[in-house]
Amino acid sequence: MESDEEWAMNKKLIDLSLRDIRRSVPKALPYFSVDFGLQGGFAHVIENEYKFPRYFGKEILGGMMDLEPRRWRKPMRENFEDQRKKVMQFAQWWKPYDCTKE
């Protein structure tokens, strides 16, 4: 991770497949983690919060989805009614897969 300290006190990448995050990351330290469901994931302790960009996670996901930075850095604001319509539409799409409504 180039956005953090060169001479870090903590490991650069913590494997979470063996232990959960509460036992892997020191208490009261900020961290970034990625979880892959049943296979565990990885975490990184942020040594210097001022050097670590706030939008780091969005940048990674935007890169994976091949989106332009303007799409995830400063998204357009939507009014409540437009958001409500999208939520209702998603709820209809999700209904066949919702295991909580059996």
Describe the structure.
With 102 residues, this protein is of the alpha+beta class. Helices cover 32% and strands 12% of the residues. It contains four helices and three strands, in the order βαββααα. Strands 1-3-2 form a three-stranded antiparallel sheet, with no helix packed on it. The longest helix has 15 residues, at 80-94. The chain is extended.
Spell out the key features of this protein.
alpha+beta; 102 residues; three-stranded antiparallel β-sheet; 4 helices
Question: What is the topological layout?
Answer:
Elements: E1 14-15, H1 21-24, E2 31-35, E3 41-45, H2 56-64, H3 69-73, H4 80-94
Antiparallel strand pairs: 1-3, 2-3
The count of strands amounts to 3
N-to-C SSE series?
Answer: EHEEHHH
Low-confidence parts lasting 5 or more residues at pLDDT below 50?
none
Strand content: 5-15%
Largest sheet: 3 strands, antiparallel
Average pLDDT over all residues: 81
Q: What is the rounded distance between the termini?
A: 44 Å
**Judging from the principal axes of the Cα atoms, what is the shape?**
extended
Quick overview:
This protein has 102 residues and is of the alpha+beta class.
